[in-house]
Specification:
Protein name: Helix-turn-helix domain-containing protein
Keywords: DNA-binding, Transcription, Transcription regulation
Order of helices and strands: HHHEEHHEEEHEEEH
Pfam families: HTH_IclR, IclR_C
Shape: elongated
Number of helices: 7
Oligomer: single chain
Largest sheet: 6 strands, antiparallel
Radius of gyration: 20 Å
Helix content: 40-55%
Strand order of the largest sheet: 5-4-3-8-7-6
Organism: Streptomyces erythrogriseus
Length: about 210
């Protein structure tokens, strides 16, 4: 800690991070051990966070992330969309296919930004807010694949007909963006994805990642 930072705020943020990393919540004792502070300090931190709905405690006394975090999170998507749109627009125009930025939302993939090409006679309709399981479609599978790969090896994922009959998808994961897990991809009506699309999607994902850093 430096003179310019707040120890209490730092501890409160550490509590939120610890709770976000568990599905079962944490007790006061567990938080006390992980933070290296006494239980009284933890009680005060939790009481303050509860007042802002950032933390809730269940009947068993275990602390969990509260619904107030969701309200904060909803404000992140517009900022992410704004940063991603230039790269998505370039990708859509270059490939002639609908481009999208997809982020992880629990066990689902959530499209938060979509750009359609302006010059094609037809293209796949895809809307922001569209959800699908992470293990279906190129966007989700690219994210899952990135979890298994070594850092710096993004690669790309191709799928056919998994979300819409006759539609192909190509997607590459975002790499090196702290706190954001997602992918950039395109969806098109085709039997196969043209060879150059994969590399172009990786390039667009890198551009979006740089814009978000």
């Amino acid at each position: 800690m430096t003179a310019e930072t707040s120890q209490t705020l730092d501890r409160g943020l550490r509590v939120l991070k610890l709770l976000a990393d568990t599905d079962h919540g944490l007790t006061v004792t567990e938080l006390s051990q992980k933070l290296g502070v006494n239980r009284t300090v933890v009680y005060r931190l939790l009481a303050t966070l509860e007042q802002h709905a950032l933390v809730r405690r269940d009947l068993g006394g275990r602390a969990r992330v509260g619904l107030g975090v969701l309200r904060l999170g909803r404000q992140v998507h517009p900022l992410v969309r704004e940063a991603a749109v230039p790269a998505l627009r370039s990708l859509a125009e270059d490939i002639g296919a609908t481009a999208h930025l997809t982020l992880v939302d629990g066990a689902e993939a959530l499209a938060v930004a979509v750009v359609e090409p302006s010059w094609t006679d037809y293209h796949v309709a895809y809307r922001a807010g569209f959800r699908h399981p992470l293990d279906r479609g190129a966007a989700g599978k690219a994210i899952l694949a990135a979890r298994q790969k070594a850092p710096g090896d993004p690669g790309y994922t191709l799928t056919h007909g998994e979300l819409e009959t006759g539609a192909c998808g190509a997607a590459a994961p975002l790499v090196g963006v702290t706190g954001v897990e997602g992918s950039v991809g395109v969806v098109m009506l085709a039997d196969v994805v043209p060879e150059r699309v994969g590399k172009r999607v990786v390039e667009a994902a890198r551009e979006v990642a740089e814009a978000l850093r």
